[in-house]
Amino acid sequence: MIQIVVVVVLVALAAAFAVATTRALHAPSEAETDRRHDFLAAYDGMGFPADLLVQCYEQLARRVGARRGAIVPGARLAEDLGLDATDVEDVAVLVLARVQGRVPAVRDLDRLDLTVRTVDELVHLLAELHAAEPAR
Predict the structure, then answer these.
(1) pLDDT digits (tens, 9 = 90+) for 121-131
(2) What pTM does this model have?
(3) Alpha-carbon separation of residue 19 from 13, 26, 98, 135 (angstroms)
(4) How far apart are CA 126 and CA 104, in angstroms?
(5) Over the stretch 5-29, which tens digit does the pLDDT of each residue have?
Protein backbone atom coordinates (compact mmCIF):
# COMPACT_ATOMS: atom_id res chain seq x y z
CA MET A 1 0.00 0.00 0.00
CA ILE A 2 2.80 2.44 0.88
CA GLN A 3 4.48 1.69 -2.46
CA ILE A 4 1.34 2.76 -4.32
CA VAL A 5 1.15 5.99 -2.32
CA VAL A 6 4.83 6.74 -3.04
CA VAL A 7 4.34 6.10 -6.78
CA VAL A 8 1.24 8.32 -6.88
CA VAL A 9 3.06 11.13 -5.05
CA LEU A 10 6.05 10.87 -7.43
CA VAL A 11 3.78 10.91 -10.49
CA ALA A 12 1.92 13.95 -9.13
CA LEU A 13 5.20 15.78 -8.48
CA ALA A 14 6.46 14.95 -11.97
CA ALA A 15 3.24 16.19 -13.53
CA ALA A 16 3.35 19.42 -11.51
CA PHE A 17 6.97 19.97 -12.53
CA ALA A 18 6.11 19.38 -16.20
CA VAL A 19 3.24 21.87 -16.08
CA ALA A 20 5.35 24.51 -14.34
CA THR A 21 8.23 24.06 -16.78
CA THR A 22 5.94 24.28 -19.80
CA ARG A 23 4.37 27.50 -18.53
CA ALA A 24 7.77 29.01 -17.83
CA LEU A 25 9.03 28.15 -21.31
CA HIS A 26 6.02 29.64 -23.08
CA ALA A 27 5.57 32.76 -20.97
CA PRO A 28 7.37 35.80 -22.37
CA SER A 29 10.06 37.12 -20.11
CA GLU A 30 9.69 40.54 -18.55
CA ALA A 31 12.52 41.79 -20.75
CA GLU A 32 10.77 40.48 -23.88
CA THR A 33 7.53 42.15 -22.82
CA ASP A 34 9.46 45.42 -22.32
CA ARG A 35 11.08 45.12 -25.77
CA ARG A 36 7.68 44.51 -27.40
CA HIS A 37 6.23 47.49 -25.52
CA ASP A 38 9.12 49.72 -26.65
CA PHE A 39 8.60 48.63 -30.26
CA LEU A 40 4.89 49.40 -30.14
CA ALA A 41 5.52 52.72 -28.37
CA ALA A 42 7.85 53.79 -31.18
CA TYR A 43 4.83 53.71 -33.52
CA ASP A 44 2.34 55.18 -31.06
CA GLY A 45 0.12 57.81 -32.66
CA MET A 46 1.26 57.06 -36.20
CA GLY A 47 -1.99 55.38 -37.21
CA PHE A 48 -0.65 51.90 -37.86
CA PRO A 49 -3.07 49.06 -37.03
CA ALA A 50 -2.13 47.58 -33.65
CA ASP A 51 -2.59 43.99 -34.86
CA LEU A 52 -0.19 44.63 -37.74
CA LEU A 53 2.47 46.03 -35.38
CA VAL A 54 2.08 43.18 -32.91
CA GLN A 55 2.30 40.55 -35.64
CA CYS A 56 5.28 42.27 -37.24
CA TYR A 57 7.14 42.32 -33.93
CA GLU A 58 6.21 38.72 -33.10
CA GLN A 59 7.28 37.38 -36.50
CA LEU A 60 10.56 39.30 -36.45
CA ALA A 61 11.26 38.16 -32.87
CA ARG A 62 10.71 34.53 -33.86
CA ARG A 63 13.17 34.87 -36.73
CA VAL A 64 15.77 36.86 -34.83
CA GLY A 65 15.57 35.16 -31.45
CA ALA A 66 18.23 36.15 -28.96
CA ARG A 67 21.04 35.95 -31.48
CA ARG A 68 21.01 39.56 -32.69
CA GLY A 69 20.13 43.13 -31.90
CA ALA A 70 16.93 44.70 -30.70
CA ILE A 71 13.93 44.98 -32.98
CA VAL A 72 13.62 48.74 -33.26
CA PRO A 73 12.44 50.89 -36.19
CA GLY A 74 15.97 51.82 -37.28
CA ALA A 75 17.36 48.28 -37.14
CA ARG A 76 18.70 47.07 -40.48
CA LEU A 77 17.15 43.73 -41.31
CA ALA A 78 20.27 42.11 -42.76
CA GLU A 79 23.11 43.77 -40.91
CA ASP A 80 21.61 44.25 -37.44
CA LEU A 81 19.10 41.40 -37.26
CA GLY A 82 20.79 38.84 -39.50
CA LEU A 83 17.78 38.30 -41.75
CA ASP A 84 18.07 37.47 -45.42
CA ALA A 85 15.55 38.23 -48.17
CA THR A 86 13.76 34.92 -47.65
CA ASP A 87 13.32 35.62 -43.93
CA VAL A 88 11.87 39.06 -44.65
CA GLU A 89 9.49 37.66 -47.27
CA ASP A 90 8.36 34.99 -44.79
CA VAL A 91 7.70 37.66 -42.17
CA ALA A 92 5.69 39.73 -44.65
CA VAL A 93 3.62 36.74 -45.80
CA LEU A 94 2.86 35.65 -42.24
CA VAL A 95 1.99 39.13 -41.01
CA LEU A 96 -0.38 39.88 -43.88
CA ALA A 97 -1.95 36.42 -43.71
CA ARG A 98 -2.65 36.86 -40.00
CA VAL A 99 -3.96 40.43 -40.08
CA GLN A 100 -5.64 40.46 -43.45
CA GLY A 101 -6.18 36.84 -44.33
CA ARG A 102 -4.38 37.04 -47.65
CA VAL A 103 -1.00 36.27 -49.12
CA PRO A 104 0.73 39.23 -50.75
CA ALA A 105 1.05 39.24 -54.53
CA VAL A 106 4.36 38.44 -56.18
CA ARG A 107 4.75 42.10 -57.21
CA ASP A 108 4.42 43.06 -53.53
CA LEU A 109 7.20 40.66 -52.57
CA ASP A 110 9.36 41.99 -55.41
CA ARG A 111 8.81 45.50 -54.10
CA LEU A 112 9.72 44.28 -50.63
CA ASP A 113 13.02 42.89 -51.93
CA LEU A 114 13.85 46.13 -53.74
CA THR A 115 12.88 48.77 -51.19
CA VAL A 116 12.93 47.37 -47.66
CA ARG A 117 16.16 47.48 -45.66
CA THR A 118 15.03 48.46 -42.15
CA VAL A 119 12.33 47.44 -39.71
CA ASP A 120 10.64 50.82 -40.22
CA GLU A 121 10.54 50.38 -44.00
CA LEU A 122 9.05 46.92 -43.49
CA VAL A 123 6.34 48.27 -41.17
CA HIS A 124 5.47 51.06 -43.63
CA LEU A 125 5.23 48.69 -46.60
CA LEU A 126 3.18 46.16 -44.65
CA ALA A 127 0.81 48.92 -43.53
CA GLU A 128 0.44 50.06 -47.11
CA LEU A 129 -0.25 46.52 -48.31
CA HIS A 130 -2.65 45.98 -45.41
CA ALA A 131 -4.64 49.06 -46.40
CA ALA A 132 -4.69 48.14 -50.11
CA GLU A 133 -7.41 46.09 -51.71
CA PRO A 134 -6.36 42.48 -52.26
CA ALA A 135 -5.18 41.74 -55.81
CA ARG A 136 -7.60 39.72 -57.89
Answers:
(1) 999 999 998 88
(2) 0.73
(3) 10, 11, 29, 45
(4) 10
(5) 776 666 666 666 666 666 545 555 6
